[in-house]
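User: I want to check something. If I give you two sequences, will you return the structure for each one separately, not as a complex?

Assistant: Yes, each is folded on its own. Here is the first sequence with its structure:
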Amino acid sequence: MTFPKPSFTPAEPVAAPVIAPPVAEPRASRGSEIVRRAGATAAAVVPPLLTLLAILGLWQAAIGDSYGGLPSPVQVWTDSKDLILNPFFDHGGVDKGLFWHVLTSLKRVGVGFSISAICGVMLGVLIGSNRWAHRGLDPIFQVLRTVPPLAWLPISLAAFREAQPSALFVIFITSIWPIIINTAVGVRNIPTDYVNVAKVLRLSPIEYFFKILLPATTPYIFTGLRIGIGMSWLAIVASEMLLGGVGVGFFIWDQYNASRISDIIVALAWVGLTGFFLDRLVALLGHVISRGNAAS
């Protein structure tokens, strides 16, 4: 018995599929990126600049060249040109440029606000995490926070008998309330899941503070710090008007006594710009520390 011999047909080579190389997406050129950033910068700068020019124009048109009381912008420039162009002069004593007065006030704010920030966060954590502490302290804090900053000045002068610690106390007592209240709100709003996880992991109080409480309350803390730094800047300017010495508040009061209204207007511009800088600095710090969760 014979079997038929199988015949095989040689296979034809199969052509490999041609894969087209990926088409690179067109990348934005460096020039278009520069144009985009310039447009964003112009959109942020031009509107307030035009508004400022419009206000100065209306101010100049309303006052004119008559100098009786409030000076016009042109008169301010004429009277305070040297103060504007040279804020760094120092002739000794209180005869200094505005830079040195603002710097002295900033030092006082830095010391007083730092103390209030530390104490405010600690008290806020205590009130937010302990029910009995909240019931005992919160009503008192709600009453004290309504006391105007300058109302604390006679008390501080009677207690410390010197201008410098009295100014620091006024800054401290003015700026601590929003820090306490916002920190306490943040502690009370910690998600329950976070607390349960801490219990399951059996975190120690120190581990709970740094790993759960502090990250969860950082946006609230920096909201209080932003409000506090603004209030401390307001308090130091007002208190320096009464305490004397070097400082932007004393400078404003001294120029008022000398009837130099133009210099006061220039000092107010410095006060406003410095306060804005402090607010943006704290907001940026909160944005970085909270990784974008704090309001900027």
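And separately, the second sequence with its own structure:
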Amino acid sequence: MKLADILASLFPGGHEVTVTDNLIAGIGIINPIKVHVIGIAGQSALSCDGALILAGHVLEIVRGGSTAPILVLIDSSSQQMSRRDELLGLSECLAHLAKTLLLAEVRGHRTIGLLYGGSAAGAFIATALATGTLVALPGAYPAVMDLPSMARVTKLPIEVLKTKAEKTPVFAPGLDNLAQTGAIRAVWNPDQSLAEQFLALLDEQGGRDVRDRLGESRGGRPKAASIAERVEKEASRA
């Protein structure tokens, strides 16, 4: 599904969303709700400059004082792998962007990521996984780390990682695997109104992060919820 089609389905009454250098920003109205829109387009890599621009948009929205939802549209590759960006502090810039989205959620904005293309590594973590709720469209292809990269980092043979990926969704890239871990709340139907699916999601109660429980119920991450619950109980005794 192309970005123009997504925006048309989300905002049938029109929008003021633009794309500049593959960075998305603007406002749409789903009657009567105002929705802030940011994101990445064109399967582009997320650089220091891009991360700081998006973070600036989020901080400006938070300073505005409303609690309007923030929709993050994502079709990226990974973080910008260049010497320049590494020297400028790429990891800090990505972390800054993620923290602005977390701040927005704490200040009352629902932050919803819509993955409609690719995304991987730092770009995926700093945008999609930093939103309070992540949904996707069929055909999206997320990866925290692709298997060849994982093999280089872990020094494990890629055949070993492929075997593990077949049995453990946490190891494996792809939409179905990320959904099994609970990272992706739902896969929307592109043949139905995206505006109606967005409004239905807003009607669901926000607040508590339920990704660990989703991962447990879907069999993709069986331990996270019980461990988090145990940590919470132990912390309450301290």
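Because they were folded independently, the notes below concern the second chain alone. The longest helix spans residues 90-106. The first strand starts at residue 15 and ends at 20.
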